[in-house]
Amino acid sequence: MGLQEHPFPLSPFICSMLFNSAEYIFLFLPLCILLYYYLKSNTGKIIGLILLSIYFYMVAYPAYILVLFGLIVVDFLAAQIIHKCKGLQRKFWLILALSLNVLLLAGFKYYNFFSQNLGFMGIALPKHAWILPVGLSFHTFQSMSYLIEVYRKSFPVEKNILQYSLYVLFFPQMVAGPIERPQNLIHQFYSLPTFDTENLKQGFFLFARGLFMKVAVADRLTLLVDPVFASSEKASSWQCLTAIVFFSIQIYADFSGYSNMALGSARMLGINLMVNFKQPYLAESLSEFWRKWHISLSTWFRDYLYFPLGGNRSGTGKTIFNILIIFCMSGLWHGAGWNYILWGLLHGIGLSMETVSNRLKFPRIPSWIRLIRTQLWVVFCWVFFRAYNLDSAFGIFKSLFYNGNSAINLEFSSSEILYGFTISFMILISERFQIQEFIFRKFGWAFTLSILVFSYFLGNFNSSTFIYFQF
Amino acid sequence: MKRGIHFISLILVVAAYIVVKSPAAIVAIKPFWFDLYALGDLYRYSFLAEYKDTTQICLPPPASGKSSNLNLYIIGDSFAGPFEKANFPNAKNYSFANWNHISQSTIRVHTDTNAFNILILQCSEKHMIMRLEKNTYKSFLFRVDHKTAKNPFQGFEYSTKAETPLESVTKYIGRQAVTDQNMGILLFSNPAVLKIKEAKAELNQSVFGKIAEEVEEYPTKKMLVQRMTTDLNFRYMSSFCPHPDTELDSLIKNLEKMNHYYRKAGFDTVLLAIVPNPISVINPKYKGRTYNQLLPRIERQVSGLGVISVFDTFGVGKEKYFRKGDSHWNKTGASVWQHAVNSKLNSFVDTRSSRNRNL
Prior knowledge:
The structure holds two protein chains of two kinds.
Chain A: H1 22-38, H2 42-58, H3 65-84, H4 87-120, H5 136-151, H6 161-169, H7 171-174, H8 182-189, H9 197-230, H10 237-268, H11 286-292, H12 295-309, H13 315-334, H14 338-359, H15 367-386, H16 390-402, H17 414-432, H18 435-443, H19 445-458
Chain B: H1 2-21, H2 23-29, H3 41-46, E1 70-76, E2 91-98, H4 99-104, E3 106-112, E4 116-124, H5 125-132, E5 143-147, E6 156-159, H6 165-173, H7 179-187, H8 191-208, E7 215-217, E8 224-226, H9 227-230, H10 245-265, E9 269-275, H11 278-282, H12 294-301, E10 306-307, H13 311-317, H14 331-358
Parallel strand pairs in B: 1-2, 1-4, 3-5, 4-9, 9-10
Antiparallel strand pairs in B: 3-6, 7-8
C-alpha cells in the first residue's frame, strides 16, 4: 500500500487568494461572473456573492472566517440597538460597539507592539503568536464607518443581515479596500444589475490596468528595492537612492494596481466601488497628496476623527494638534511599529507646516517647485514606511550619504534600472494626460488584451503578495 | 439557448475548479496530461528552450543468473526513485521509500529473518545536512519488525495520520491544496503555452540579462545548474558553503546512530549512497569559490556503514553524467550508480554463497 503521491512539491506558504493569481483570473472570477449572472433573483445573487466571498476569504486562513462572522453579527446588532435608542444611550452603544471593533483590531495587531514597549519600561506582559487575519484593519474600519453613519442618522439602519454581510464581505474590497461607505455600497445591493457588456468591458479594462501595474511595474521594481532594504550596508549611495525612488513607484503601482483590480472585478458584476487614487504623484502640496492617495482611508480619518476633533476651525495650534493626531493614528493603522508612527508623524509635520504657511499667506512659489518639494518629502517619508524598523530606516540614510560608489555585494542590472525609470516615467505621463483612457475609448477590447499581453511578457509573477495585505 | 450555454459554461468552470482543488483528481488525470517535469526540472524554472530535455530511462542490466536471497530496501529521493526491481537483478525483492514520506507518515517494514536484508540510504548531497541534523534525523527512523515473513514480501508499509477537520478544510480550500501547481499542470503545461513561456524567457534573457532566480547558466552554456547548490547564501545546500569539522562530526555521528538503529532492528547491512551535486564534480572551483568537500569528507570518515560512491567516477567524466536542463543525472550517470549498487549487492551474494558452501 503506497501513499497517494502528489506529483509536485507542496508549498507550505499560506496566503490570501491574490488578484494576480491564476486561480483568481482563470477560475474564481469567471465562476463569480457566470454564477452571478446566471442567478435571476436579487437575493440569489446576494447569497451567491456572500458564499463566494466567504470562500475567497477562507483561502487565506479558514478559521478566521469565524472572526469575521463575529464582527458582522456584533456590528449588525449594535446598529439595530443604536437605531432604536435615544440620547446618551445611543452614544453609549456606539462607543461600546466601536470599542469592541477597536479591541479586536488591537488584540490581533497591536497587542504585541504595546507589550514589547511596556517591556522596555519594566512591565512584562506575555506575547501571543496569532497570525493577523488578512484585511482586518480594512473591514473593521468599514464596519465602524457603518456604525457611525447609523449613529449620525446619515444612513438608515440595514434591516437585512444578508445585505449587511455582503457590505463587509464583498470580495473585491474585503481584504485591502477601498474602505467603502455604506451610502456608496449597500444601496447597490438592493438592485443588482443584470448582464451588461459595457460593465464587463469597463471592468476588464480596469482589471487589466491594475494587473499591469502590479506585475509589470510593482513586482519588477521590487527586484531593485528589496535587496537594498534587506541589506543597505552593502549598497552604494546610488543604489540606495534608486531603491528609495523606486519604492515610491512600487508602492503606488502595487496599491493602485490592487485597487484597480478590485474596482474592475466589482465593475464586471455591475457594482461601482469608490476610486482610491487620483494621480497622487502630481500633487503640489501634501494636503493635495492626501486627497489623492488612498482616498478611502484619508477621508475615513477626516470624517470620523479629524472633523469630530474640531478640524481646522479652532485656531492654528489646535489644527496642528489635530493634524498630528490624525497622522500618527494613520501611521499606526498601517503597522504596529515606530517606523510607521514616525512616517505618519512626518507627514503630519509637513502638513502642519503647509497649514502655517497658508495661514501666514507666504508668497506663492511656482507650481513645479511646489510639486518637487511635495514629492521629495513624500519620497523621504516612504523610507520609514518601507524599512523594517527605525534602525533599518536610519541605516538606509547612512548608506545613502556615506557609502559612496562602493557597492559591496549588490548586483544591479542596468537594463532593469533603465526599465524602472522608463516605466515610471511612462506611468506618470500616461496618468497626467489620461492616455490609456483615450486609447481604450478608441480601441476597446483590443487595447485591454494588449495590456494583458504586455503584463505577461514584462511581468514578474514570482513576487509576493500585495504590500497592503499586511495591514 | 443562451441560458443553456451559460449553464454549461458554469458547470465546466465548477468542474475545473474541483479538479484543481483536489489532489486526488490531479493525480488521476496526470498520466493523460502533458508532463512538464519530463522536460527537466531546471528547464521548468527557466523555460529556456535550449535546455529542454527529455527523461532518459536507465536500462536494467542483464539478469545475473545467480539465485540470491537478498531483500533490497532503499530510502532515497528522486535520484533512486525511478529505479525498479529489474535494475537490481541480484535482489530477490525490492522496495523503495522516499525520505519525505518517511518523515510525513508512519512507516513500518517487516524484514525477513530468512533473507539477507540490505538497506541503502540514498541521499543527494544538497539534502545531506538537512536530513542528518540533530533535530531531523530521528524522524527518519521508521519502525522495523524483524520476523520470519510467512506472507509474500511486503516492502515498506505506509499509514498516514488521520486529518483533523481543520486540516481537511485547509487542504482543500486553502492554498495548501497546491492550487497554483495544479493550475500549472492543467492550463500552462501544454506545448502551445510552453512556446509562449519560452518566448518570454528569451525576451528576459536577451533584453534584461535575466533568467529564473532558481537557476544559473553554466558558463560553457552546456547546462543549467541549480542556484541553491552554487550560491553561498544557501548554507545547507550549497557546495561552496564551508562546514566546520564539529558540524561534520555531528552529522556523521547521527548517520552512525541511524545505522545502529537499523542494524539492531533487523537489517543485515546498511549502505550509504550520496549523489553529488552536479556542480561539485563539474567545477569544484566554480566562480572562484572552493568546494566544501562535504561528500568526500563524509564518505571518508563514516564508519560502520558501507559506502556506494560515484563521486570519483563522476569527477572524471564531469558534464557527461548530468542532464542539461535538470538537476538529476542522465542515463549514463544513472547507469554508473546502478552498476555501483549492483557490484555491492554482488559482493553480498558472493559472500553469502561462499558462507553457505562452507557451512
